[in-house]
Amino acid sequence: MSSEPTTPPGLPDVLGPGLDVLFCGINPGLMSAAKGQHFARPGNRFWPALHLSGFTPRLLTPAEQDELPRYGLGITNLVARPTARADELTAEELRAGGARLTSVARRHRPKVVAVVGVTAYRAAFGRKAAAIGPQDETIASSRLWVLPNPSGLNAHYQLPALAEVFGRLRLEVAQAD
């Protein structure tokens, strides 16, 4: 039996072979946990940003998350525990999530791991100066990007800006092929 922490029942990782990008959210919101769907809250801009950036040919809904691997995409979370807000997580939970993400990346070998939330990334990996965009370090053998948190609570990035950053990641992945 593995000692690796897992996502809660009902909110499994969305993984597949040969992933281009493994998106890593911070943790499930209460609605996502209840529905068993990543980024399920209606105000969350993950799915629209994914589509507008060109990762998917049409706007997927959270209920269609299992279609992501056909586009070379997957989703996991740093922390399995659902909360109403990400700032309810402890530093210890985030650090343990960083170790879990490294293990998932080592096992599944996506080309890129994209952590969705710079503040959580900083805490999980002890990178206080990390900024949005590509990082110099890797996670296992995967390139690393940090993306803005697409939550509707993140007023710093509206949908056009989110789509632009997601689009830069998509172009990097396409150019690496």
TrEMBL record:
Entry keyword Zinc: no
GO biological process, one term: base-excision repair, AP site formation
Any Pfam family matching the protein: UDG
Domain annotation Uracil-DNA glycosylase-like: ranges: 12-175
Keyword field: DNA damage, DNA repair, Hydrolase
Annotated InterPro entries: MUG/TDG (IPR015637), Uracil-DNA_glycosylase-like (IPR005122), Uracil-DNA_glycosylase-like_sf (IPR036895)
Entry GO MF terms: pyrimidine-specific mismatch base pair DNA N-glycosylase activity; uracil DNA N-glycosylase activity
Top-level lineage group: Bacteria
Keyword Lipid biosynthesis: no
PANTHER family per record: G/T AND G/U MISMATCH-SPECIFIC DNA GLYCOSYLASE, G_T MISMATCH-SPECIFIC THYMINE DNA GLYCOSYLASE
Protein name: G/U mismatch-specific uracil-DNA glycosylase
Organism of origin: Saccharothrix texasensis
Lineage: Bacteria, Bacillati, Actinomycetota, Actinomycetes, Pseudonocardiales
